[in-house]
Amino acid sequence: MKDDLKTTNNTTYSLEKIFPDAQDFLPLLGTDYVEFYVGNAKQAAHFYKTAFGFQSLAYAGLETGITSRTSYVLVQDKIRLVFTTPMPGEDNEISDHIKKHGDGVKVLALWVDDATKAWEETTKRGAESYFAPKTEKDADGEVVRSGIKIYGDTVHVFVERKNYKGTFMPGFEKWESDYNPEPVGLKFIDHMVANVGWNEMNIWEKFYNETMGFANLITFDDKDISTQFTALMSKVMTNGNGRIKFPINEPAEGKRKSQIEEYLDFYNGPGVQHIAIATDDIVSTVSKMAKKGVEFLKVPSSYYDTVLDRVGEIDEEILILKEHGVLVDRDEEGYLLQIFTKPLTDRPTLFFEIIQRKGAKSFGKGNFKALFECIEAEQARRGTL
Fold first, then answer.
1. What is the pTM of this model?
2. In Å, what is the CA distance from 153 to each residue of 37, 88, 271, 320, 329?
3. What would the pLDDT profile of 282-322 be if each residue is shown by its tens digit?
4. 3-state secondary structure 290-346
C-alpha cells in the first residue's frame, strides 16, 4: 500500500522543495479511513454503495463480539469509509454526537508507520489525547491505534497496520454482500475541509503547524471568497509529502449569513464541511452518480459563456461540462475540474466534492464566486441566508 500511495495525488512531492515550512516529525503515509457517526449505519452504508459506487468491505457488531456499536466499512479504490451507529445502553459518546450534530464525520484516521510515536509527538506539542496507544489483535495480526482531539468533536486517529494482514482491523469480519454496485470511478481523498468558528482559523493553522508539522499551502481571504452578500476566509494546510491536505474555513463579515455560519448553526459547532474525492474522468463519474440519485449544485449556464476565456484550452468539450455542471479552473501547473454535491443529510452540513486534477494543485479559486452564489441561492430556498 505504501508504494501505491506514493502517487496518490499524481505527483511526487519533495518535502524541502515543495513545502519547506513543513516538519517531518510526524510522517503520514496517507488517509486510512474516515468514520461517520450516523443514526442508522445499515441504511447509510446502503446509500453510499448505491449512490457513490462503494463496495462492502468489513463489518463489526453483535455477531463479531462488539456490543457498544455497529460499524460497516465500505471501499472504493484507495478510499475507506466507516459508518457507525450506537447500540443502546452502552456507549453514549456516539449517540450524544448524533444528537448534537446529526450524521457527520467523527474520525479522520491517518495511516502512520508508528502510532505510538505519532501520539507522543503530537501530545507533547500540545494536542489533547483522545485515547492513548492501544494494540488490537486477532488471528491476522495486530493494529496499533492512538487518537488526538481536533476542532469541535472531531478527532484524528493514527493507525499503524504494518503487522496486520486482515480485511480491516481486529473486531471486524469480512462483509460478504450480494449487492455491490459497480464503482463510479472514485480514486482517493484529495482533501478534507473543516469549518471552524469566528476567528478560529488561525488557531487551527497554528495547531496543524506546531502540533502536526503541517505547512500553510494557500491562504484565501474575504476578498478571494466573497459575493455581494457573504464571505469567508480559508487556509489550506498540508503535510510535508503533500498526501494530506486540510483546508480550514472560518466565517467573515458579510451582509447576510454565510454558508459557514449556516453550517455552524446546524452542526452545532465546528466539523468537517466536505470531503473532496479524486477521479480520473469527472464526466463519467458525475454522470453515473447523477443517474443514481446524487444531486449536484449547478451554476448558471452563463458561467460557461466566458470560462474558456479565463482558463484557456482544455481537453474536454465545454458543452459536455455545461451539461453536467462541471466547473473549470487553472493555475500555473495546469487545470482542474470540480463539482459539488448538495448536502447529503437533512441538516445542510456535510457534502462531497468530486475533483479531477490535470496538473493543477490549487483549489478552484476562479470558481469561488459562481459557486458561492449558487450556494447562496440554496440558502435562500432554505430561509437561512
1. 0.91
2. 11, 21, 7, 41, 33
3. 999 999 999 999 999 988 888 899 999 999 999 999 999 99
4. HHCCCCECCCCCCHHHHHHHHHCCCCCCHHHHHHHCCEEEEECCEEEEEEEECCCCC
List the alpha helices (DSSP H) in the chain: 2-5, 15-18, 41-52, 92-101, 115-123, 201-212, 259-267, 282-291, 303-311, 318-324, 368-382
Reference 282, options 320, 247, 333; nearest CA is 320
Q: Scanning the structure block, which residue is given the C-alpha cell 443529510? A: 345
Mean pLDDT computed over 63-80: 96
Buried b (16+ CB within 10 A) or exposed e, 175-206: beeeeeeebbbbbbbbbbbbbbbeebbeebbe
Calculate the CA dihedral of residues 264, 265, 266, 271 and round it to 10 degrees: 20
C-alpha cell at 379: 440558502
Provide φ and ψ at 12, rounded to 5°. Answer: -95, 120
d(CA 320, CA 317): 5
> Is a pLDDT exceeding 50 seen at residue 1?
no
pLDDT band at 259 (very low <50, low <70, confident <90, very high): confident
Burial label, 71 (beta-carbon count in 10 A; 0-12, 13-18, 19+) = buried
Whether the Cβ atoms of residue 336 and residue 356 lie closer than 8 Å to each other: yes
DSSP-assigned letter for residue 350: -
Task: Give the closest residue to 176 by CA, choosing from 56, 84, 80, 63.
Answer: 56
Q: Taking the CB of residue 87, how many other CB atoms lie within 10 A of it?
A: 15
pLDDT digits (tens, 9 = 90+) for 328-358: 999 999 999 999 999 999 999 999 999 999 9
Instruction: Give the separation between CA 246 and CA 350, rounded to whole angstroms.
Output: 15
CA 173-175-178 angle, 5° bins: 160
Residue pair 344/351 in contact by the 8 Å Cβ criterion = yes
Neighbours of 267 (CB within 10 A): 23
Residue tagged 453483535 (cell numbers): 62
**Strands of the 271-279 sheet, one edge to the other:** 215-220, 231-238, 245-252, 186-195, 271-279, 351-358, 334-340, 327-331
For residue 51, what are the contacts with CB-CB under 8 A and spacing of at least 6?
289, 292, 293, 294
